Amino acid sequence: MKRFGVLTSGGDAPGMNAAIRAVVRSGIDQGWEAFGVEHGYQGLLTGEFRPMGPRDVSGIIQLGGTVLGSARSLEFKTEEGRRKAIRHLNQRGIEALVVIGGNGSQTGAYSLHQMGFPVVGVASTIDNDLVGSDITIGVDTALNIALEAIDRLKVTASSHERAFMIEVMGRNCGYLALMAGIAGGAEAICIPEFETSPETVADVIAKAYERGKKHALIVVAEGAKHGVIELEAYFKEHNERLGFDVRATTLGHVQRGGTPGAFDRLLGTRLGAMAVEQIAAGNFGVLVGQVKGTITATPHADIVDRVKPLDPKLFELANVLAK
Ligand code: ATP
12, 56, 127, 151: which one is catalytic? Predict the structure, then answer.
């Protein structure tokens, strides 16, 4: 092994930079040359490679986002696209690649591995939907950002005796919404995994009002079956039965761009270093993640095309605590 590459792919997540830094410096410590690939898989296709020394990753551990940039690439999803990517890697003498990203990115990494290119994945997505890592890089920071917004909305909600509906990220996965809802003391939580009808949410809000609550919070995941727009329309139509006046806020990309907290910096660092250990051991086609508190490498074959289930007990607990 002489040269290896690293890229970040899919949605950016706070802590990705800590992982890049750890991968680059640990790889150099092994005596290898490090190459950063810009703009994820897209950069493999357009040949955006840059050599990276220890100083190129100085001063980035505290930055959100990814200094390598990220992108979504449709061309990479085709076999022809992946052949081109492997050609570009071979032309530069890069013998192994670290892919830092979420579900889609790891599926792409596994495809490269199946085509014979040595790849190691690092679990990073704010969705926390990857099998093979109980918690992924970026989740903790994104959750704290969502929570800070929820806490602030609760203050203004109480002052005006209003209900607030907050949309948090999660197209297919309600982890962030569920955890933010529980930690923020929400009255209702709407996530893709468990259906909650507008009637049920309205009922919960009306009951909270009748019980004399000064505020009510509804946390809605982006991908909930009945989303913010539908809920808002329903509440408008049934305004008199709710008691509260309901306002909606969408947190959107604010959740992604935060300064990574200690947890994500440490997780990014540990997973990045472990990815290099896998390369050194010749253990490819694996995802590096944290399982039951231990940094672990799980074969990509065991994790792709699977979605980590949410614990239904947590959803039930959220409903109990909303009394
Ligand atoms: P996040 O969920 O945090 O946004 P992600 O890694 O799941 O992260 P995606 O947009 O799903 O983000 O995937 C990132 C990139 O991975 C895609 O743009 C595409 O290039 C590649 N990819 C996704 N799915 C596949 C697939 N089935 N085969 C090959 N490549 C894929």
Answer: 127
